[in-house]
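Repro:
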Amino acid sequence: MRKHTVIGLMLACVLPLAAAAQTAKGKDKKVARDYANTIATLQTDLGDIQIKFFYDKAPKHVENFVDLSAKGFYDGTFFHRVIPGFMIQGGDPNTKKPETPQTQYGTGGSDTKLKAEFNDTPHKRGIVSMARSSDPNSASSQFFIVVKDSNFLDGQYTAFGEVISGMDVADKIANAPRGANDRPNQPVHIKKVQLSQAKSTS
């Protein structure tokens, strides 16, 4: 009887541990996504901006942006730098915090640093590209949308997507009144990034 009792106790301990390990494994498992056919809709104060991605050109940058969006990372951030006739920049988590001084806008990011994936995509109007510091391999979460052809950026920044709807919204953001350091007087927020799947053409 004692032997059976000991075995029973051992099983009682092992089974919950196995179940816990399986649960933990499930939590760590990355969600399978069809990045190549993902569409991101930036729902802003002024309307929606829809983006398709160049997964074949910059896969790691696309995965990073989509995964951050899925976690709600961009929700509540705003476009902290706007330059008429050039671009609008957003994606800094520092802009979520009311107590953060404007001097720190543009310095925040996620825990990830991406290696550059420079490609042959020209920075024409509507292109979505990653902001970075002087280090080419420092892109994190901040991105910008080009509102006018800016080919001098080619080969210097990683273009990873393109606006397919809502450039009128991007233009409104770019042309908003601004102050020092290209900070908008009334920043436009990204209320939410909605992810959806486009129909595959393959």
